[in-house]
Every structure is written in C-alpha cells, then in structure tokens.
Design brief:
By secondary structure, this protein is α+β, with helices and mostly antiparallel strands.
Amino acid sequence: MLDWRKDFPPGPARMEYKDAKDVVTEVDTRSEEIIVNHIRQHFPDHHILAEERGEEAGAADSPYTWVIDPLDGTANYAADLATSCVSIALAKEDEVIMGVVYNPFRDEMFVAEKGRGTLLNDRPIRVFPTEKLEKALVCFDLGYNEEKAVEQLRQAMFFRPRVRSMRILGSGVLGLVNVAVGRFDLFYHQALKPWDLAAALVILQEAGAVVTQNDGQPANYLKPSVIAASPLVYREFMEALDIYHKTK
C-alpha cells in the first residue's frame, strides 16, 4: 500500500473540477499512478479500470480486471476532513474475488478474498447481528446524479423515524466497509461507480452481510445501486422499502 504519511501529508488540498460538482486533486492522480504502475509491473496482462484514467486493456484473453479508486472521498480530503480511503479490487470476469480498502486516517486495512473471510488489520470481522431496523444505525450517501440524490433524500425522510439514526460520510466506500465491521447496520446508495463498490462488495460478502441492488437482485460492481446490511436488518429494510414505493 501507499505510504500516506510520507507521500500524501494531511491538510487542505488544491482541487480541480471534473464537472460541475465532482472534484479531483493531485493526490488522486498520484495515488492512481503508483497503484497502476505496481499492477502493470506484476500483472502486465490484466485489465485495469480506474477512476481517473478509465479503462486500460490488458491481454485480450485475460479474465482479470483491477478496479481502482485511488482516493474515495476526494471532497473530504480536499477540505481536510479525515474521511477518505483507497480502494483496490480484483475481478475475474464480472465477479470480484479480492478487495482491499485502506483508511489512512485510522490506519485501517480491510482485506477480503473470496471464500476466505474478511480481515481488518489482520483480525477477522463480521457484521453486527442487529435484529431490528428500529435499532439500526444507517448510513447513506448522495453521489452526483441529481435525480437519484433527490430520491435518496426522500427515502431518508421516510426511513428516519423507522431507524435509530442516520449518517452521511461523504465516502461511499467507507460507508460500505463500516457495515462489514459492525459500525453501521446498513448502507444504501443509488448511484455508485464500479470503483466505489468493487472492493467493498467482497469485503461485505465475506463478513456475512447481505448485499443486493435496490430491487433485491444480487449486487454487481458494474451496477450502480447497492443495499448492504446485516441479514435481519436487511429483511426489515426491504419490507419498508416496498411500502415506500407503494405509497409514493
């Protein structure tokens, strides 16, 4: 992993706009360059899908793709808010088989490999067995799709009296992996990018979370929506979500 203390010191960062609201900093591009160069050195045939540079093809017959978010929570980092992370995943065809998320501000490394469980700083972790939605601490985020962000806020207003409390971190990746370690009981989002979801997906699955799309279909890192929760909270949330859609 990157030596964040050496290469990326904390403090407000200079940022540029990729579009009307989404931003990028020098840290995003430098972090991505370091990661991609390392992968190219060791796995030259693999494909790469990275947030800043997009797709880079490897060998035509390779089933492997590295999915990289070099700095999730860029706006937080640029504002000197300590809620950002690095996310790296390896997918075989359309299935994520390995994921790593590093939070440099807490020095926390989440690691999962398909079929081998999830570790946080080398210790096994599982979702917290919260049994009732009304006891759940729920996290959600908005993203940059205005229509879906408005719908997300409408849903938050519906769910607020039905849960213990709600949070927005400004980092979808951290919102997701904090379900895996039991800090949140549920995370949901309607407009994630592949690099936001890929590593967190296998981390959650291997930690015992239920992870689906908003319609209940199995989650896929190439699809934008996700609901991730402990099993009993997930069931109640989906029942309530059905009521929400019927009463809109």
